[in-house]
Amino acid sequence: MSESNQINLISGDPGIVHDTLRDFLKKVKTKDIYYIDKESYQINDVTKICLSSSMFDPHRIIIIRDVKLFDYKKVMERIPANNIVIVVDDVKKNTSLYDYIDKNGKIFNCDKLNDFQMQQWITDKLKSHSLEIDTKAAKMLAEYGPEDTLQMKNEVDKLISYVGKSKIVKLDDIQAVCQADVAFEVFGLLDVLNDKNITKALTLFNIYWQEEEGKDIDKLLSLLQWQFRLILMVVHMKAENIEPKKITDFIASFRKVTMTKSEYNEFVSQSKEEKEKIIKKFPPMYKPYSINKLVWAHQYFTVGELINVLAEINNLMVQSRTDKTMLHIHFTIFLLRVCKKIPFRMTS
Hints:
two-stranded parallel sheet; 58% helix; single chain; 8% strand; alpha/beta; 17 helices; Zinc Finger, Delta Prime, domain 3; Helicase, Ruva Protein, domain 3
């Protein structure tokens, strides 16, 4: 066996990594397999394992799950011809280990799926169990569910068990059983508020409150406030006859910017052009499906209603920071007002 396939790197989406590793092990028939992680081994132990040969099998496979335990320079100089090392960890490009594997071994890039690919992956998984999924539901789960296929498989499995013989997975099913980002809850809530469906609005809020025990209510309120501000902005842009595409492009330009203090200090010293380049490297705050929802949501509210909604959210945020004892009741009243079951208080 040549050195060119004695060292391999498999990294990326955990689910795809798992399947790639499984397929690799099927091709190399051996029972002499070591799974190396920091809980079980020290670096010297790993080196000894890599440099000793299998007594009974034609090959020994060493799967490195923590590269800090792998002294590749010492190992690869003297590794027995029938030993195979598989690194299953995130190894950055332009590092010495990555360059070594790229030159002397094989790299399996298991890139994470984008939202469209994840949506198709979800659809295909459900189809293999004779189930269909509503397009809207698939888009929402792909955008706000787990980012890797290993965790997403857990969500799909829960849907398969939950839906049973109904044959079609709908948005309500996802909201009932799947774990998702709090933004998913906000957009689900926004949907039913647009429709003025108080029953569903109260159900979604109560499920969220029970799951989080009120702990993450500040984040929910903050996201709701941001959504309604954007809807109000869209209303004003529409009033100025700005084209829909320009509105969506504008919202699409928003980025989730996270910086340390030192990174920020360096950022502010850059030119305008450099700042724009840096900002574009951050992930978008809103994905296409979410942007369309925000743009179309403007038709369900008047300017006056939106101002009242934002005033109510602001009151709830103040209450959340001072006294949460009555917050659940006041949030329920807020939902009743948005769904037009009771009037808003007059704002000055």
